[in-house]
Amino acid sequence: xxxxxxxxxxxxxxxxxxxxxxxxxxxxxxxxxxxxxxxxxxxxxxxxxxxxxxxxxxxxxxxxxxxxxxxxxxxxxxxxxxxxxxxxxxxxxxxxxxxxxxxxxxxxxxx
Amino acid sequence: xxxxxxxxxxxxxxxxxxxxxxxxxxxxxxxxxxxxxxxxxxxxxxxxxxxxxxxxxxxxxxxxxxxxxxxxxxxxxxxxxxxxxxxxxxxxxxxxxxxxxxxxxxxxxxxxxx
Lengths: 111, 114
Hints:
The complex is a heterodimer of chains A (111) and B (114). Chain A is mainly β and 111 residues long. Chain A is built from no helices and eleven strands. Chain A has strands at 4-7, 10-14, 19-25, 32-37, 43-49, 52-56, 59-64, 69-74, 83-90, 99-101, 105-110. In chain A, the strands form two sheets. In chain A, strands 2, 4, 5, 9, 10 and 11 form a six-stranded mixed beta sheet that branches. The relative contact order of chain A is 0.34. Chain B is globular. Chain B has 114 residues and is an all-beta fold.
């Protein structure tokens, strides 16, 4: 069964700063998910990636399959980016639906 | 609809009662997932449907929990004889198919058992 570690657990930054959140996992996977959860519980899927890099607006996600590591970057951070960011991976190569979730990174962006 | 919807958004029930939670996935998505998230924890997988059939129900905690998806679209999670420990946010997600995999989440149903 896969294990997921995220860092940092908590991150407070000033508006405009470049943010990096890291995720490491233990077992080979087909794809990795980055999700965002706002207070109140709603979860939004940000990225699903299996190699290289994806970009959406100010968000960039990268993955290194060999090193079993992914990063989520936020450029020009804004207070509305404040949320919990979660990395999730399948429990195994054939189980993309049984996601193992990281503990999440609570991000606070101060104006 | 544009996204996954879940009803009700909040449900308060007394211990021992029966509840049904509904999930309406994105149109055309054949895969549907139910998760449960307790306070301060990550979501826990409950069950996965591919079409009408439950492809994997290994995450259901016990036989008080049951889920159906009779027409391959809307799904209902049913909990019998609710216990206080069932209190959690129940999340539903759907994806185009299992191979594609990207899961789109609904807003969740917050269940409180008193």
